[in-house]
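Sequence in, structure out. Go.
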Amino acid sequence: MSGVIIGFTAGIYVALNSLGAGGGQPDSANMVETVNATLCSVAIVSSAFGGTILNKLGHAITMFIGVLSYMIYVGGLWFFDRHDGLAFPLVGGVLLGIGAGCVYVVVGHILLSYPEEKEKGLYATISLNGQAAGSVIGSIIPVILNRDAQTSAGVPTAVYAVFEAMMGVAAIMSLFLLPPDKLTRDDGSKVAVAMPRTAKQEFVANLRAFKDWKLLLLFPGCFAAEAFLVYVGSMNAFSNNLRTRSLLSFIAVVLQIPFGFLITWILDNKRMNRRTRTLVGLTFVAVPLYAAWIWQIVRVRNWNRNDPPTYDKLVDWSDSDFVSAFFLFMLTWVASNLWQYIMMYFLGAITNDPVRLAHYAGIYRGFLAAGEALLFGLDSIGIPYIKEAGGIFAFYGSGCLICFWLGWYHIEDTMYFKEDHVVVPNHIIHEIVDNSHELPVPVDEQGMVVLGIEPTAHNPEKGQDEKMAVTSVQGDNEAGLE
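Output:
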């Protein structure tokens, strides 16, 4: 469900931006860059502390607030396309800055804390591919409507109406989201156990998350993870006509989906330990990522933003120049989006604690918003494209090197039994007890780890009560673990 919601909100947002400014109007570039820079600046703060909001309001209400903000944002672009008024889009941008943080925190928390360790790659893919699927729907509509248009034009009213309707469906769906303590895994164990906390406790925990050096080291990679959208959208509008932009945007998000499942196969592959599959997956993404951005730098090195091409000089899909532009756009889009899959996987490998992950999901989104805000600001003043591409490549390059180091030295095969208040799946406890008759640390009757207590060996010859005190899990309260 969260994948559908993110597709019908953030997916539509990506589709609008990848089409170029103003949903397809290059002359609206300054307006959209101003609105989006404002949006991302607000999102830095709202996302960074979104975990506190989520842990207090819950998943359904937090997501509902976020979806409504997307509806207002799209309405602002619609209004600008028809009436050229800036106030409505700016208000929509500010509200989306708050609401987008809410949506991403909820989705991030679900994909990071709900799955078992063996499924973290899959959950990241479901979420991000859901966003891509929303972008596919959002992109195919302009392709169909603009297939005969070779000059720039605004987005038809019907497109905006469809987008608003999709977001309305997402708003209704968001009200049916359940918190993790209301969900049960296939083996009978809870996803999480509810632990009431005050607003002050949540805020302090949120601040404490900023001290995690592993999270902070991910900043360069996170900073670039969505900043590339600004560059791609601006460059696409600068060099291509509307129908070409629409086609490129559509095919790119379609290609992202199968590659997303391929990276999942690597990251969740049971034939490799977690460190190995992390490094293999990172290499799988890093090589084309480096190639794409070096190619981008070479391509735009002589572009002059003060002398944009006239309409008749814009690239059309019937031109000979389209082939190279097509392959570069696909390589850049797919590799840059797969980088987000890697970032989410690293976040999920740091901890299994659902409370911490709520804060980490918000901070991660804040990092992304910071990158977007900076790029929107720089793009709005017209800095050369080679500097934009070079800056993005610098963050990707440093982020890759840091992740290789983290993956080699600091990614552990499991975090189970190493953190307080994490519910260990029943089958994991069964496997350990069956093989060694001893848990590394005690767990309570709900399967939640309780650190600070000496572990007790499982001894079948002793009383049933002693055995239950250490190894009892959901679904085994009558017979223990036989």
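Check: Residues 151 and 241 are 6 Å apart (CA to CA). Residues 416-482 form one domain.
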